[in-house]
Design a protein that fits this description.
The structure is a single chain. The longest helix is centred in the last third of the chain and has 19 residues. About 9% of the residues have low confidence. With 218 residues, this protein is an alpha/beta fold. It is globular and about 50 Å long. The protein is built from seven helices and nine strands. It is 40% helix and 18% strand. It folds into two domains: 143 residues, Rossmann fold (3-Layer(aba) Sandwich), CATH 3.40.50.2300; 50 residues, no CATH class.
Amino acid sequence: RTRKTANATVAGKARRFFVSRGGSAMKFRYAMVCSSNQNRSMEAHNLLKRQGLDVASYGTGSHVKLPGPSMREPNVYDFGTPYKQMFDELRRKDPELYKRNGILQMLKRNLSVKLAPQRWQDNAGDGVFDVVMTFEEKVFDSVLEDLNNREQSLMKTILVMNLEVKDNHEEAAIGGRLALELCQEIEGNESWEDTIDDIVAGFEKQHRRKLVYSISFY
């Protein structure tokens, strides 16, 4: 399922270049987005960052939720709460539980990447992105809805892609690697507008995973 908007290709756009630690210029800015900016988006953020890509990550939920003692008792935090604070609180509450379910290890990874979870809908001050990768259809829809509600004054295209990934540690690791591969493929092209159909078709054929994408504007 591919969603496109009219007039998707804009020629001759000025690029914002990011210089990686290796000294090479990165063409595009990437955003990894899931619901709580904890597992899937942070796994991908970590991998892309380690490969020198210009990447940020976000969640689209109203709050950050982490598994608790039962399905009815999640740990709920506000966006902006430092990962270190969550780590310390959960380690104090029940170190065995949160070590066993991988939450402490995940938070330790997260706090090595950035300070705290960020909310996509509050990121207008972070500048523009070229490519957004989501890992759940409702997150994909939330990103598109938010972009459509913003004032589209720049007429700069933004590619929003969804790769469906279950919200567990094992699937997040697989999804992160696939997101990295996909973004590296995009990064290797001068203009994703001209090559995205071929990139998606090649990815789906190789990995037998469905990609949905839409083109929106800033």
